[in-house]
Amino acid sequence: MSALYEFLLRQGDNTLVLGHRVSEWCGIGPVLEEDIALANTALDLIGQTQMWLGYAGEVEGKGRSADDLAYLRDPHAFRNLLMLETTNRDFGNTMMRQFLFDAYQVQFLAALEKSSDQRVADIATKSLKEAQYHLERSSDIVIALGDGTDESKEKMQDALNRLWPYIGEMFESDSIDQAMVDAGIAPDPASIRAEWDQIIQRVMSDAYLQLPEDAFTHLGGKNGKRHTEHLGHMLATMQTLQRSHPGATW
Q1: Fold of the domain spanning 87-168+177-210
Q2: pTM check: above 0.90
């Protein structure tokens, strides 16, 4: 399979899996305003997925649509970051995960606007404004909860500690990343780590949260070698209608 196809799957699967996770809050958000905001965030991410996976289907050349790639692949065929498939747990954990990814996504999409592949550049431009808003919102909430009550601060610190071992995968480079760099399509993920670190350090300082020092990281999601058990359970729910009624359309 081509490196470009794998690259597009990674982008589309990231937004698909996170979008579904965030959508799980619909109707059960802590307050009405946050319920609506989370639903809108999920819709933004699914809209980005449609563009990434739609292009991936074209590059693959087997006639598969974005829907086919979303609903008819098994867990081992997904290429999303492991952090994004972890369960929501509570509102604080959900927003910490969103913030950590948003800070990465804004930097990565900004670099992709300069892609030698015009289609990739166009998708990045359309997605960047949404990602910037997501980052602004998730940053504000992380700060508000970190600098809030003793309970909210404790939950945010626990969320940061729990998610930190997944961070390194965002910046780990492999042969697919190198192929994209060589073709001028995408930057080396490691090249945006410094900017990401600056954002994280600023927000955590304002939130009075302590950054973990452990450098250990879980790997395997972006290359499909290893996913958590959470992805299979999530896909069983997300794909059930299409799997039960193959070819069904609205």
Answers
A1: Ferritin (1.20.1260)
A2: yes
